[in-house]
Design goal:
This protein is mostly beta strands. It is about 10% helix and about 40% strand.
Length: about 750
């Protein structure tokens, strides 16, 4: 075959049939070489065979022959075969048929088809290495012999029943030495990377530092090597049933095609054990799968009875587990040297109707059959001695991992030059800076649930919130020390805000301890929630409980306590509280962005001290805990930069809070235009919790081109709580782009 050439078209070119055929052959050659070069010929998908009497039905599917041609079966194909001949081979061939004309007029079309046939003899494969020069995705090849694709072999079992054997079928493959995931986080390497590489297969994953780290490999000797933890999980139903024979158990595994819940019931006599397996939901009168084992059975008879049961059972598969006679390999004996052998399990016989449920995964060895020739030549497979492979080898890593997260365990330590000791360790996982989540919590409980009294956070800090129950007094006790408590030293540095705040708290606490509380602090109407992108506005009141003397302002501190971090500050207050007067309201406002990241709840504590003549008096109050809702966001990704003039683009509103949101106003302001994105006369739009919804009306860019055009989306909304809607709030979102 000549080197393929590609046509170069130009205006007013005269095209002949030979030119179009050359173009077609070039494209078919590209596809054909792709089928057999980076891939390999064989079955791609489908093409399984269903036997019904003397009819074999080939299901739809796709295959590629050794010349790169597609063999497509669109509809089931029925083939007849002889039930007296075994084996019989089912092949699929490429066929090109003329279509579209008759008589002396040349055929203007060809139809590619796949023809299946049954043969009593095996057809040879033309070559083990397809020729790339003759590869084509369709069409006949001059001088090429047919290339058969084996779909299956019809064979007869010992009981004369027929089945399809697929082990000799060839399936498409991929020729590659490195396979990467789309995101680049996983790499599978096939074959050694160089002569010094001992691994024929390796799987690597990116770690936290974005470096590839080996996770699994197979070396040149066939050993499987794992780096990291190996976790075995199971999705199969099974059970371990005792027998009348000491230390012999039956391992039960439910078949995948069992249509319903499988239950087992065991009945015992002094010499016989009978197992009844039944499937719920089956038709009435369906017989149970029954196994009878006599205590007088030899090991050979017992294994043969289990084999016979497995052949006829439709619900489960049984396997004998002899816990007493299993032998350790040489490697395992070295590993457990000096460890006393475990005591044999004592069977607990139960005759109730039990459900075979999901169990944990297990790790089993497939024994090697090592026949030992006897003079009588009567050795049977069940009498072969079993040799287990060498045991597992556990090697510590270069950097041993930290103790398992969220674990409670005891550790026996034997340090040098010290007496050994036992330690009780509670692990909350690896320390992570910036992680304020509670890892280990010591809690109390009241009628409302658990109350955290002591908490260890992910960043290593210790939180002592004290008694937060509703019945607790305002100045609750944090901790009591019976021995010696060593606390970190706070440096007396006026530049440290924490030092100044602690001074104020200590000063106010001392005043409250030594004097009567003549200042009443209250939150008469504390907000029921706050938002992340709205001002943190609230009001508290101060009242002079004295009937004769006024109270002059001194100090007022504010503590915003969230579930992640506390924020300390001061509140400016210059009003003198007159005696016998009502409460004085104090408004507090914080701009957005001052709440700690990730905070979902909030509580405010106000500590105030005032002057009564030359004396100091104080008061404090903590507000209720209220949620912090993430404010809604406007998705302006459809507003590209630049954007053609007059282009319509969508605007979506995203609600990441756990409360439904109702939009009453949504308008876009651009130079020279104001657009109602909800539609004129349209009802308010509800954005469910955790969802994003596009506004009904698309926004439009101005008709004239301009640079630095600012688009502003303003929304008015309220939240739908269980007790009713909240008051309206507004937010504005802006984006500046170029209108082309």
């Amino acid at each position: 075959m000549s080197v393929p050439s590609r046509l170069l078209f130009r205006e007013r070119q005269l095209l002949r049939a030979a030119d179009l055929q050359t173009e077609q052959q070039y494209l078919l050659g590209l596809a054909g070489r792709h089928h057999v070069a980076p891939h390999a010929w064989g079955i791609v998908r489908g093409l399984s065979i269903l036997l019904q009497g003397d009819v074999a039905t080939v299901r739809p599917g796709l295959a590629i022959d050794g010349y790169g041609r597609e063999l497509v079966v669109f509809q089931p194909v029925r083939l007849t075969f002889s039930q007296q001949t075994s084996p019989q081979y089912v092949y699929l061939y490429y066929c090109e048929r003329p279509k579209g004309a008759c008589g002396s007029v040349p055929n203007p079309r060809f139809q590619d088809s796949a023809e299946a046939q049954v043969s009593a003899t095996a057809s040879p494969i033309p070559s083990d290495n397809p020729d790339l020069t003759s590869a084509t995705a369709a069409g006949g090849i001059i001088g090429a012999v047919p290339w058969p694709v084996l779909l299956g072999i019809i064979k007869a079992r010992r009981d004369a029943s027929l089945h399809v054997h697929y082990s000799h079928c060839v399936y498409t493959r991929l020729r590659a030495s490195l396979i990467c995931s789309p995101a680049g986080g996983t790499v599978v390497r096939v074959g050694p990377e160089n002569l010094a590489d001992p691994y024929n297969l390796g799987i690597s994953l990116r770690n936290a530092a974005s470096n590839f780290q080996k996770r699994f490999a197979i070396d040149r000797d066939g050993n499987a090597i794992f780096w990291g933890n190996l976790i075995l999980t199971s999705a199969q139903r099974g059970a371990l049933l005792p027998t009348l024979i000491d230390s012999v158990f039956l391992k039960v595994q439910v078949k995948p095609n069992a249509a319903g819940v499988v239950r087992v019931q065991t009945s015992f006599t002094p010499s016989t054990m009978t197992l009844h397996f039944r499937v719920s939901g089956t038709a009435q009168g369906t017989a149970d799968d029954i196994l009878k084992l006599d205590i007088s059975f030899s090991a050979t008879q017992r294994k043969q009875a289990i084999r016979n049961f497995n052949k006829s059972s439709s619900s489960v598969v049984l396997k004998e587990a002899d816990l007493k006679s299993q032998k350790k390999s040489a490697g395992l004996r070295r590993l457990f040297a000096g460890v006393p052998p475990p005591k044999p399990a004592t069977p607990v016989l139960d005759d109730r109707l039990l459900t075979v449920d999901f169990t944990g995964a297990d790790l089993s060895f497939v024994p090697e059959d090592v026949p030992t020739l006897l003079p009588c030549d009567c050795l049977t497979p069940v009498d072969h001695p079993e040799l287990l492979p060498e045991g597992f080898i556990f090697l510590p890593g270069a950097n041993p991992p930290a103790p398992p997260a969220r674990d409670l365990y005891s550790l026996h330590q034997e340090p040098k030059d010290q007496l050994p000791s036992d330690e009780l360790r509670i692990s909350g996982g690896a320390k992570k800076n910036g992680d304020f989540s509670r890892r280990i919590v010591v809690s109390g409980q009241n009628k409302n649930g658990f109350i955290p009294l002591l908490a260890f956070r992910g960043n290593g800090s210790l939180a002592l919130p004290g008694d937060l129950s509703t019945a607790a007094v305002a100045s609750h006790l944090l901790f009591v020390v019976g021995g010696t408590a060593q606390l970190p030293i706070v440096k007396p540095d006026p530049r440290d805000p924490l030092f100044n705040y602690l001074l104020v708290l200590a000063f106010i606490q001392g005043i409250m301890t030594a004097s009567s509380q003549l200042v009443k602090v209250d939150f008469p109407s504390f907000p029921t929630f706050f938002e992340t992108n709205q001002n943190l506005d609230y009001m508290f009141s101060l009242q002079n409980l004295s009937t004769t003397e006024p109270l002059k302002p001194d100090k007022c501190s504010e503590t915003i306590v969230t579930n992640t971090l506390s924020v300390f500050g001061t509140v400016p207050f210059t009003t003198t509280l007159q005696p016998s007067a009502g409460p004085t309201a104090v408004q507090v406002s914080h701009p957005p962005g001052q709440l700690p990241a990730g905070a979902t709840s909030l509580q405010v504590e106000i500590d105030v001290s005032m002057k009564l003549g030359n004396l100091s008096v104080a008061g404090k109050k903590r507000s209720p805990t209220v949620p912090i809702l993430p404010s809604p966001a406007a998705d302006l990704s459809g507003l590209t930069d630049p954007i053609p003039h007059g282009t319509q683009f969508p605007v979506a509103i995203t609600n990441t809070s756990p409360v439904d949101l109702v939009l009453t106003v949504a308008q876009l302001t651009a130079p020279g235009a104001v657009q109602n994105l909800l539609g004129i006369g349209s009802p308010p739009l509800t954005v469910p919790a955790g969802q994003s919804i596009a506004l009904p009306v698309q926004a439009g860019a101005p008709a004239a081109a301009a640079a630095n055009v600012q688009f502003t989306v303003q929304i008015t909304y309220h939240w739908m709580f269980a007790g009713g809607p909240s008051s309206n709030s507004s937010l504005t979102f802006s984006k500046t782009v170029t209108v082309s």
